[in-house]
Structures are given as C-alpha cells and as structure tokens.
Amino acid sequence: MKKNVWKSLLTLTLSGAMLLGTSFTASAEEMKDITVILDYVPNTNHTGMYIAMEKGYYAEEGLNVNIIEPTDSTASTLVAQGKGDFGITYHEDVTFSHTTEDPLPVKAIATVIPHNTSGIVSLADSGIESPADWEGKTFAGWGGTGEEEMLHVMMDHYDADFSKLTTIISDGTGFEALGKGVDLLWFYEGWDCVIADMNGCKLNMTYCSDVDERLDYYTTLIVTSNEMIENDPETIRAFLRATKKGYMECIEDPDAAAELLAKYCVDSDVEMLKKSQELLADRFMQDQEVWGEMRDSAWTDFMEVMVEYGVLEETIDSSELYTNEFLEK
Q1: What's the mean pLDDT when you consider all of the chain?
Q2: What is the distance between the alpha carbons of residues 132 and 124, in angstroms, rounded to a whole number?
Q3: What CA–CA distance (Å, rounded) separates 108 from 89?
Q4: Mean pLDDT value of segment 103-126
Q5: CA angle 103-291-59, nearest 5°?
Q6: Range list for CATH 3.40.190.10 in the chain
Q7: CB-side exposure of 309: number of CA atoms within 13 Å?
Q8: Does CATH place domain 118-214 in 3.30.70.660?
C-alpha cells in the first residue's frame, strides 16, 4: 500500500515538473566526463557543440563535455587510442585509416555537413581554371590524410601529370600566400572562402565534386571508438541528441550562434563568424530530413573512385566505416 502511495506521489511530482517545463539535470556526482577532440582550431563547423555545452544541453543528458584541439595526430587516431570519446574528422581520414594493415577501431556516427564544400582555389586572374592547369604549379597544404591522393585523382581526371605539381606543407596558409610562391590552396567554402571574400580576394575554385560527382563526400564527421559503440551506446545517443539541439539553433539563428562561438574564436572577427555561420546554416541539413544522417552511396562512391585511380586496391564494406544507428529520426 505504502509503495503505491509513494509511487503515485512521485508520478505526480514528475508530471507536474514536466508541465512546468522543468528539466532534471544530473548532479555533479552523476555527470559523465566526455572529451571531444576537434579536427583543428574551433570554427563555425563546430558551433553546434559549443552551443550544446554553453546552454546545458549536454548537462541535461548527464554529460560533462570538454572540447579540445588535437595534438600531433588526427582525432580518429586519438579516439582510437582512448584519448578522447568523440572526434571531429573528415571522410578521407576515416576511409584510409580502415584500409591499412592495422585499421583504426573507429566509426563515423554523424556528419556535420552532408555535402562536400571544399575545393582547390587559385587567384581569379592566375589563368588557372581547372586541374588541367596545375602542372608546373605549387600547392601548399597541411599534409593531411589523403591530401596528395585527392590531388592526384583530380589531376588524373584531366589527364594532367601529378608529378609536375610541387606540393609543400604549410599548415594554416591563408589566401595571402597566393601569388607569392604558392598557386593553389585547399579551401573550405564556409570558412576560408568567406575570409578571402571579406578581404577583397577574388578566387577561382574547383570543388572536388566538380571533378567527379562521386567526390561529394563528407568533409566534417563525428567519430567514436568501436569500444564505445559496443559498451556504451546510450552515451553516444545522449551526446548526439544534445549536439543536434545545438546545430538546430545554428540553423535557426546563425548570428546568435556566431556570437556565442566568438568566445572560443578569439582571433576571428565576429562579422566573419556571422557570415560563415549564415552560409553554413543552409548547409547543415542540406537535402536531409534527419540531422547527421549519412548516405551509404557517399562512402561507396568515394571508395570506387579511389580504386579506379589506383589509390586503394579494393573497396571494403562501408558498414565498417560508419553507422546511423545512434541518430534520432
């Protein structure tokens, strides 16, 4: 009898709290510490996570989230080593890390941007119109996984000789380097191109998907370890639920999102962040009904191109690379 009375009182209390819009957040002792490793420095690709952290959406899920920059390895590698629970990385990194003799035990669990918004840029008055014109030119990159392979594929598509392209490593090189010993850079539409445009720099840009529509792959992904997938799926679901809320706010109010992000991007102009966030607001769920959902064709198409041009020996089962199972429909 007493158990039923207390059960009824508890039900009434919880129901009343829900009606009043009260949310129950875990106590400090119950909070689960989570580390997210970025792919680079904080930028407008990441804003949804910072919103979820600042506005308590992670806390509501019982998560104490710490977002950090990578060290000397990719986020995928660091997550595989247990140095982080989630990582932000890119399609090439996930794919190539699974086609080695010792594949990384990680999987993509969501995409932040569902289409490839990256490409190779040159000055508009340089006379460089496509990869057919890259012979004898100099490309400055960051030396990331798959970078040279992608350049090779793009030049091969135009019957250009990759061996005649000079590549140098110059992490963080901006538009100012163009025409000063550097002819080509790999830019992202929502960040680098916005900065160049705001500074009056006119560019030619060859998007990866312009060369071959099968190169419409994911430039920003969230990954976790196979160990977490197996042992702690509820934490993954909780993390993605809160993260989704953050990105929905980016879409609904990009200016406010950019102002919040400015706290973490102290070297970036707020107006630039607003322009970038406004552009990405139209990209975060482009052609999607479910935030974060990945297309199997994006993975299989990318591998087919890599096999076709001899970068990979064979394709692998895409289920080894990604899963949509933790996303809210």
Answers
A1: 90
A2: 16
A3: 9
A4: 96
A5: 85
A6: 28-115+218-320, 118-214
A7: 22
A8: no
